[in-house]
Amino acid sequence: MIAPEKRKQPKHPYLVRSLRTLGLGLVLSVILHILLDASLSGFNLSATFEMIKTYPIPFLLGILVLMLVYLFLISLIGNVWASSTIFVGTSIVVAFANNQKFLERGEPLYPQEFEMITQWRFMLSMLSTWLVVLLFLGIAVIIAIAWILDRYSRKISAKYYGRDFKYWDQKTLIIRAAGLVFSGVLLFSLTNFQSSDNWLRKAYNIDAQWKDVDPKESYQQYGFVGGLIYSATANIMDKPVNYTESHIKDITEKYSKLADQINATRKNKPMDDVNIVYVMSESFSDPTRLHGVTTSSDPIPETRKIMEKYPSGYSLSQGYGGGTANIEFEALTGLSMYNINPQITSPYQMFLYQKENFPSLVSSLKQNNYETIAIHPFKPSFYRRTDVYNALEFNKFISRDEMKHTETLDDSEYISDASAFQETLDQLKANKTSTFIHLVTMQNHMTYWDKYINTIGVEGIPEKNKQTVESYIQGIKYSDDALKDFVTELDDMKEKTMVVFWGDHLPSVFPEEIVNQNTERTMHETPLFMYANFDLPKKDYGTISPIYFVPKMLELTDSKVSPYYALLTEMSKEVQGLEKNVLINGENQTIIEDQLSPKAKEYLEDYKLIEYDLVSGKGYSKPTLFKNK
């Protein structure tokens, strides 16, 4: 018999194997880049390929970045199939999450949201059961395929290369070390992407003009990878050309004099021993204001009664369908997202958690010996609130883990507003000193299907969206009921107490047909009122930004202002609504930037310099601007 001919072995097996591995990485990178880009359009492949055709260079550069990630993984782990499984599995999960966020909020997945993986149970609870099953099934299939391939790879390797490569033999370790250093250095260099000298930025700039107005456009035009890198490396604010210590000193002196003028007519120190309660109500809105929506009964009659009796209006939210922490940031600090670069999509997660003793309403009240308490009936790590509340100088943070009242409603998984209000009342009664409580409710957080026994019908909504919308409206009806009981309890309290209540944003339950019938401003307006168990003058605020809540409170209670709140007091008279897509002048009219008054432009310029000084600059203004008079 003639012996079978031996297969000819390659002369340079390590080189051939490395090239084949890189070839696999290239194929996977192309496929996964297309998948990630397709997740921006509901996995519409024709739209995805049109984007690639229009912007080919960003597409190729995105593949290069993914290749570097793959090379880093394979060099670090050493196992082709384990590395490929992590690479593919992670990309699929990211594409899935990105698609879901686009469906819910019309926004891509921003860099800081990747840390939400630590809240994976909560994130999965927001999805329907079949989507969760499909996701895990897909990942299981990938792992199974990788396991099978890994099982037989040694046999294939022995047959083709004439050897079984070991992850730890000398040549393999040298190749892995070289790959790790090469990919690691290039990936680390991307942290400097905003620099005009960055190699990748230069390459992208051949075909890309980065959007400074809406970061999601960068994703949709230059691909998921390009948009992600651009957002991840953005500056908080661009340094104003006239930012100097002497100029900031001039501004602080200017508003110190203005504060003296305002305080000459006011008799009380800030709030004058009045308990203050901030209630930022999750997704609380007035659906009867939306064109195209008709409800069988008024879901918020008690809120409406309070708004008719006390100072009230509407809060201009910078978010739609989400962004709770950003509205909270504005209300507590008086700093607007308007001036912050659009790529900074969450100040809490992207810079505030790193700060110490950051000026805010909290620190201002602590100057007058207030007890300051934050209450949020959810996980303390969400939006890094534990670190952020420390930076803002809260004395105490009560999360769901410390709450005594944790009751829920019907089939909802979230702690009810009634329970959150009772927790707030307990704290007010327990403290003998003046108290500030910042309550962020959770009851009306998405999801909304199959939550409640709905008692309010809705018309004008497509049938497929009806149950979700009705469930949401039932939730705010429960909130309205709880609010009535809360105010009744406060009416009977001996201690002076004031409540600033507002909805953080509208939910994303309303279909496109409804959104298109309403203005951008309407879709960002939520009910606002300032209640007190003592006499307050009735005022109609129209629509104002959360940055003005404090100066309005100080005005209502005839309280003296710090130079910072003097600036906000005067600025509110010229521009009372200040968000990226909506500007409202002092007459409650929607305007564009060119229509701002000269005074408004002057205040906004000073305000921008102060905001830069606090979030990105040297903090020259802190010793003077925030000192109570």
Automatic annotation (TrEMBL):
Organism, as annotated: Listeria rustica
Keywords: Cell membrane, Hydrolase, Membrane, Transferase, Transmembrane, Transmembrane helix
Membrane-topology descriptor: Multi-pass membrane protein
Pathway: Cell wall biogenesis; lipoteichoic acid biosynthesis
InterPro entries: Alkaline_phosphatase_core_sf (IPR017850), OpgB/LTA_synthase_biosynth (IPR050448), Sulfatase_N (IPR000917)
GO cellular component: plasma membrane
Transmembrane segments: 21-43, 55-73, 80-100, 120-149, 173-193
Keyword Transmembrane helix on entry: yes
Limits of the Sulfatase N-terminal domain: 275-558
Listed name of the protein: Sulfatase-like hydrolase/transferase
GO molecular function, one term: hydrolase activity
Pfam families from the UniProt entry: Sulfatase
Keyword Nuclease listed: no
Record localization: Cell membrane
Main location: membrane
